[in-house]
Amino acid sequence: MLRDITLGQYYQADSVIHRLDPRVKLSATVLFIISLFIVDNFIGYIIAAVFLACMVKISGVPFRFMVKGMKSIVFLLLIAVVFNLFLTPGEAVVTVWKLTVTKEGIRIAVMMAVRLVFLIIGSSLMTLTTTPNNLTDGMEKLMAPLKIFRVPVHEVAMMMSIALRFIPILLEETDKIMKAQIARGADFESGSLIKKAKGMIPLLVPLFISAFRRANDLAMAMEARCYRGGEHRTKMKPLVYQKRDRLGYLVMFIYLAACIYFGRIFRIQEFIR
Amino acid sequence: MAIILDHVSHIYEEGTAMEAAALKDVNLVIPDGQFIGLIGHTGSGKSTLVQHLNGLMKPTSGSIYYNGADIHTDGFDKKNLRSKVGLVFQYPEHQLFEIDVFKDVCFGPRNMGLEEKEVELRAYEALKQVGLEDEYFYQSPFDLSGGQKRRVAIAGVLAMKPEVLILDEPTAGLDPKGRDEILDQIALLRKKTGITVVLVSHSMEDVAKYVDRIVVMNQGCVMYDDEPGMVFRHYKELEQVGLAAPQVTYIMQELKKKGLDVDTDVITIEEARDGILKALKR
Lengths: 273, 282
What we know:
The complex is a heterodimer of chains A (273) and B (282). Chain A has 273 residues and is mainly alpha-helical. In chain A, 70% of the residues lie in helices and 3% in strands. The N and C termini of chain A lie far apart (56 Å). With 282 residues, chain B is an alpha/beta fold. Helices cover 39% and strands 23% of the residues of chain B. Chain B contains 11 helices and 10 strands. A 6-stranded mixed sheet of chain B has the order 6-7-8-3-9-10, with helices on both faces. In chain B, strands 2-1-4-5 form a 4-stranded antiparallel sheet, covered by helices on one side. In chain B, helix 3 crosses helix 4. The N and C termini of chain B lie far apart (46 Å). Chains A and B meet through helix 8 and helix 10 of A and helix 2 and helix 3 of B.
């Protein structure tokens, strides 16, 4: 039932992208998202598409795993496309009843859709190739400068990794409790909205209790191991940049430069024409 | 009147890299009134199997019949099936949610759409059946001890008056006293009502003295399906799949090897004692 959810799921494979330092992947993802918003012409999107396709290929993650992540945004995507299509003023192409599809509307809608799709694929590529632990390690390192402003970076990273770690556990727990209550004749599907909401009580109460119990156990276990936050803590596997990581940064900046360069040039040509 | 499994297979995440066969071509008949022990090592598919019996899981291939009707045909009343085939999950105390014990036990029968009076009668009866004292009825289920919570959860299923009671590792995490109490109560209940019981466990020792029949699961297949004494004859093979026969089996086998003519098919310590005494007198 709930096994199908692929939130932040890691896909085990042996590829250069999997082995990259999480800091590289994190900054690359941020840069990739920025590049999607810098670019607003055809050539730019082709560059982004080719780049993304290469990365997916190298990562060795089957493409359908990326598509799985897309299911969750289909609705959002549809709204964005429909609204842009009909509500952008400009040169009319087709008029249906009171709604007018404009040339600008089509352009913006397509751009929006492509951006969103690329954005999801790009970021799910990161989560699919990086273990949650690695990811939070990388974040902690990247955000380390914020310590100057008294941001509890280590604590935030720790909370994030704990939260991520608990997602599959709680999903499994939900599945189990749901089945146990169905076995006692509970009905989670039919009935009015209010009845459905009331029907969730037998699921939510045990789930919350179990979540608190687990949190308590974990806190106790950390306490027993004398955990005391970020001060003077060392890592068993500290993050160290390798040659491939520097290469990764280089590839990323070449890509970003290409995006900016071709974006500008092409726009000027269009302007001249 | 029975549950019949006909060539049932179940594959998790079919068509992905994580594909795993949990059940492979399982054929099983569970006749009325039998006390069956379903034994298997962790991951042998026993929990998956019992979830098929009340239609919580659908087999990838094969069919399941309850009283002659295929439970996965359209229009089959699954809700009714679930009240007839009561399933108590592992650690059932984790499903408790009501503000007091009595209300929690009422949940099952109330879902069946019974009259309020009938619901309460059944809840009371079920709580008595699991041996919980009246003083606990209006306490929060979360204030009870582990063993008491588990009884409340079992009562929650019993209150639906199932014809078949399936218990998935009902003694996991309990101390020896709590374990014996729960198992004795189930045996007593079965004697009184003639209900069919399927007891899932990984310990032969636990189930040996109660059950009429043992089904041994290994890697999704039924390995042995016979009376306890007959199954324990295969104690060497059982060891290879991570299980063990009761200790008396080992003693009797060892005695026989040493030349004492004893019956090796005994199950309980009492039977073993009598067998040894008889052999010595001879």
